[in-house]
Amino acid sequence: MTGIRLHAPRPGWAVDADVVVIGSGVAGLTVALRCAAAGAKVTVVTKARLDDGSTRWAQGGIAAALGEGDTPEQHLDDTLVAGAGLCSEEAVRTLVTEGPDAVRRLIATGATFDTDADTGEILLTREGGHHRRRIAHAGGDATGAEISRALVQAVRDAGIETVENALVLDLLKDPEGRAAGVSLHVMGEGRHDGVGAVRAKAVVLATGGMGQVFSATTNPAVSTGDGVALALRAGAEVSDLEFVQFHPTVLWLGPDAEGQQPLVSEAVRGEGAHLVDADGHRFMVGAHELAELAPRDIVAKGIMRRMQETGTEHMYLDGRHFGAEMWASRFPTILAACRAHGIDPVTEPIPVAPAAHYASGGVRTDLHGRSTIDGLYACGEVACTGVHGANRLASNSLLEGLVFAERIAADIAATAPGALPHWDARTAAAESPATFLVAPSARLEIQRIMTAGAGVLRSADSLKQAAARLERIDTEVSAQDEPGTEAWETTNLLLVARVLVAAALRREETRGCHWREDRPDRDDSGWGRHLLVTLRPDRTLAVSTTETAAFPPVSPLVTPAAPRRTP
Ligand code: SIN
């Protein structure tokens, strides 16, 4: 039973688990490992292959106060500054104090970080907004790939059940309205095929981001906002969706480039590369005390401004002074990506422009990862824990995934009910008051609308136009369209696009990564607070604001009827 569900065939199969985890990045796999270690039967559902999530693409690394002289307090200060007044200090404090040990546990799980050959100490680099070298990396610029490798191996070694190539559709609720599983569609051959259901005592969304809502993004093709859309349809509250982070330095591949674009890590600037215009002028010097290493939103805005001033489509990142050896050893992934596109960073500056990178908002959770629906958790990019505020500090996301995954696993172990309730997952998945579907042909249009109207630069006019065009697509939706992966993904993209635009329109100020050209200043008296959005059964959006910059407590919409026990 859900409030609204996607139009989909009746589930043909059902399996049971204590915990179903949707997603296989650092957040999902860490929850799965910790829950399994506590004795729970865990099923991991992932949209592509186990190692295909966003984590694999992370280059820069994982931020934690591990270095000599660094402290959680300094990490907290940098995070709060980047978050532009909207971080939850409690959530950030949790992140930075629990972070260093969480990284050590990740190392114990098998991840290998780059170390100094003489001392054996972890090598740390700098990125935008960090006043210290604080970013641990692996394989030079292949940190996410190494974390993903280690966690996938650990999940396989632990014998955790995985369902690959499966798109999650909707949340299932038990008769009391508590989250009790998901419906999903397995794309391809395997033990399960077609639409089915997983019944579970706890559901953890770790589905990653929604970068594919824009034309150009650093996110992989799987990042279509499925978790946020599922949560909205189920009645959960989402927050801060207007704060989309545009990474300043994405390899510029031409005005028509669409889909996933190669990232040029902040760490390249952290190691001393310069941002320059076509005349070689370092335009960030003097614009901020940290110049090229200012927080990401400031660098993205600096690049956009210079592009506007010079009438160009990109700027350049100049790291020629690194030399061939450093490029090959420190940034092998970026070097290979640039060369694959005919650019040699050893001999020429890299053309770069901002592209959609990270959703700072998402499904609103408390410090235990609990959403506003009892039994539904969210972790990683899909979640809004309050850690990122209006702008995520570079390399805080892998850490957030790790720290909050462990907290979720602990909460599930302490509170999940002892037995699955008596209800039929297949019937529940098929019964719902309303179903809808958007035609796959709308996907490109949604991405173009979002890029034109709600990209790095926004205004009331551009957002109103985007909202009207998205509403038009929404009124054309039909339950008659053929259900299938592309239609389900497009339906999810449309829903998250509508919420993002509604929130961006409502927030009449410029703050963090939300840049309103018509409201260029930060307005602490009116806008030092969050926007909360839910989806009504008639698919209209209910938007409200918090009283202050602090989130109110997450109150489950449903209280469990029976006391919960350890699984
Ligand atoms: C990067 O390497 O620049 C990306 C790191 C991040 O998004 O945190």
Folded structure, characterized:
- The chain is of the alpha/beta class and 567 residues long.
- Among the domains are: 249-354, Alpha-Beta Complex (Flavocytochrome C3, Chain A, domain 1); 436-526, Methane Monooxygenase Hydroxylase, Chain G, domain 1.
- It has 15 helices and 23 strands.
- It has helices spanning 26-37, 72-82, 89-109, 143-157, 226-234, 266-270, 296-310, 323-330, 332-340, 397-415, 425-430, 443-453, 460-475, 485-506, 524-527, and strands at 5-6, 14-22, 42-45, 62-63, 124-125, 135-136, 161-163, 166-173, 179-186, 194-205, 216-217, 238-239, 244-251, 259-260, 274-276, 315-318, 350-359, 362-364, 376-378, 383-384, 435-436, 531-535, 541-545.
- The strands form six sheets. Strands 2, 3, 7, 8, 9, 10 and 19 form a seven-stranded mixed sheet that branches. It has a five-stranded mixed sheet with strand order 20-18-12-22-23, with helices on one face. A four-stranded antiparallel sheet has the order 13-17-16-15, covered by helices on one side.
- A hairpin with a 7-residue loop joins strand 9 (179-186) and strand 10 (194-205).
- The radius of gyration is 22 Å and the shape is globular.
- Residues 558-567 have low confidence and may be disordered.
- It holds the Pfam family FAD_binding_2.
* CATH architectural arrangement of the domain at 249-354: Alpha-Beta Complex
Q: Which structural class fits the helix and strand makeup?
A: alpha/beta
| CATH fold naming of the domain at 249-354 | Flavocytochrome C3, Chain A, domain 1
CATH H level of the domain at 249-354: which superfamily? Answer: Succinate dehydrogenase/fumarate reductase flavoprotein, catalytic domain
- Counted by DSSP, the helix tally is 15
Bound molecules: succinic acid
Percent of residues in helical segments? 25-40%
Structural Rg: 22 Å
Low-confidence stretches: 558-567
CATH class of the domain at 249-354: Alpha Beta
* C-alpha termini separation: 23 Å
Average pLDDT taken over every residue: 93
The biggest beta sheet, please?
Answer: 7 strands, mixed
Strand content: 15-25%
Number of extended strands: 23
Overall outline: globular
Function: Catalyzes the oxidation of L-aspartate to iminoaspartate, the first step in the de novo biosynthesis of NAD(+).
EC number: 1.4.3.16
Catalytic activity: L-aspartate + O2 = iminosuccinate + H2O2
Protein name: L-aspartate oxidase
